[in-house]
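Aim 2 progress update. The chain analyzed this quarter is reproduced below.
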Amino acid sequence: MVAHQIKTLLVEEKRFLEPCLRVVDIARELDVPEYRIRTILLNHFNAKNFNHYVNQMRIEHAKALLCALDK
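Predicted structure tokens:
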């Protein structure tokens, strides 16, 4: 359930685009401990850490924007 909430915040609400987003921000918003967010990212999203996961999402977003410009 928390994994779905994380995905909703980061992906569907595009919070990953916030330049100063931190794991504590997500933890506070979902009212769960930071360690739980980190554990879920590691186990459910196969991410090394929060910053790595968010940066990967940003890279994929940038690629999509560049491809859209190319068309």
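The mean pLDDT is 94. The chain has one domain: 2-70. These observations will guide the mutagenesis experiments scheduled for the next reporting period.
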